[in-house]
What we know:
Elements: E1 15-19, H1 29-36, E2 40-44, E3 53-60, E4 63-65, E5 70-78, E6 84-92, E7 95-104, E8 110-117, E9 123-132, E10 144-152, E11 156-162, H2 167-178, E12 182-188
Parallel strand pairs: 1-2, 4-10, 11-12
Antiparallel strand pairs: 3-5, 5-8, 6-7, 6-9, 9-10
Amino acid sequence: xxxxxLSGREGLAGVVVVSDGAANxxxxxxxxxxELGRPVSTVVVEGPRGWNASIExxxxxxxxxxxxxxxxxxxxxxxxxxxxxxHVTVSEGAEVMAQKDVVLPPNGEExxxxxxxxxxxPGLAFYRVQLDGGPGETMNADNRRAAVQTVTxxxxxxxxxxxxxxxxxxxxxxxxxxxxxxxxxxxxxx
Length: 190
């Protein structure tokens, strides 16, 4: 809001902002600086409460199979000067699908934490990823992200019974084994 209030001031050559780097009230400072139309420089200061952990990105495969483990990766960042311990939770509805204690490196360095979750039902899975950075964090709004994954049914199990090897059975075996949606077992009738 302070940057936006400078709009239209006569003789303004530029602005220097002294901040801890966390925007927790008012307008978006980057957008306000763009609208100002003057150079805006920043000086970052960090007090005892000047740190912020955030979820930068959630990466999940576009599809998974119900009942089969699938990876999920969460890219995290800590804008504080010291390493921090944090906790990442992935949930679907009220069910916790995966969780992990992590150490966030200091000074804006990013880390990617990988976890495994197992979708329960076919359909669209809506995952909520939450980062608990602990007490003293300046902003919690960037500690939540969502991800969506299409979950297909698990492989259909099929038992193929044949009186003995023949060309028809060989063709059927190749066709069924080549289809990733089938889990076939082959047996001979005696």
